[in-house]
Amino acid sequence: MLEKLWPFGRNRVRKAFEEALEKAFQEVETLEPLSELSEHEDHYLLRVEVPGLGPENLEVRLEGDQLVIEGEKREEKRTKRLAEIVYGKIYRAYLLPKDAKKEGITARLSKGVLEVRIPREKRPAEPPVRIPVQEA
């Protein structure tokens, strides 16, 4: 019956299923925190969820045109009856908008949410540039 549904064979289906389960339950090396970016008249506000991390476990830095947030949530050694909390390194890089100022960026951590305020500079709007399409 399974061969009718999966013409490529039972072993391939079993192998694909086992690989998917293995990936789902393997130890996560780097976590990507959830975030949101809101645009205001004079600044951008980047909010990043980093529950369980303190300022001593976080690093916020500029690398060229990218804002990088990096940290680590370390697991405490103890006997557990239930283990659903994810531990490990976090890393996320955000490309700064064109009108973002690199000077004056501030970061504040409150109740598991990192808020990074990025000032904006006034720039005249750039007109669209038309690119001609050539026939091959």
pLDDT averaged over residues: 85
- Enumerate how many helices there are, as a single number: 2
CATH architecture of the largest domain: Sandwich
Count of all domains: 2
Sequence of secondary-structure elements: HHEEEEEEEE
Decide which structural class fits the backbone: alpha+beta
What is the molecular shape? flat
Strand content: 35-45%
Q: Strands of the largest sheet, in order across it?
A: 1-6-5-4
- The Cα radius of gyration reads 23 Å
What composes the largest sheet?
4 strands, mixed
CATH topology of the largest domain: Immunoglobulin-like
Domain SHSP: 25-136
InterPro entries: A-crystallin/Hsp20_dom, HSP20-like_chaperone, HSP21-like
Family: Belongs to the small heat shock protein (HSP20) family.
Keywords: Stress response
Can you give a write-up of this model?
Residues 25-136 form the SHSP domain. InterPro entries: A-crystallin/Hsp20_dom, HSP20-like_chaperone, HSP21-like. Helices cover 15% and strands 35% of the residues. With 136 residues, the chain is α+β, with helices and mostly antiparallel strands. It folds into two domains: 1-27; 32-119, Immunoglobulin-like, CATH 2.60.40.790. The chain has a four-stranded mixed β-sheet, with no helix packed on it. A four-stranded antiparallel β-sheet has the order 2-3-8-7, with no helix packed on it. It is flat, with a radius of gyration of 23 Å. The mean pLDDT is 85.
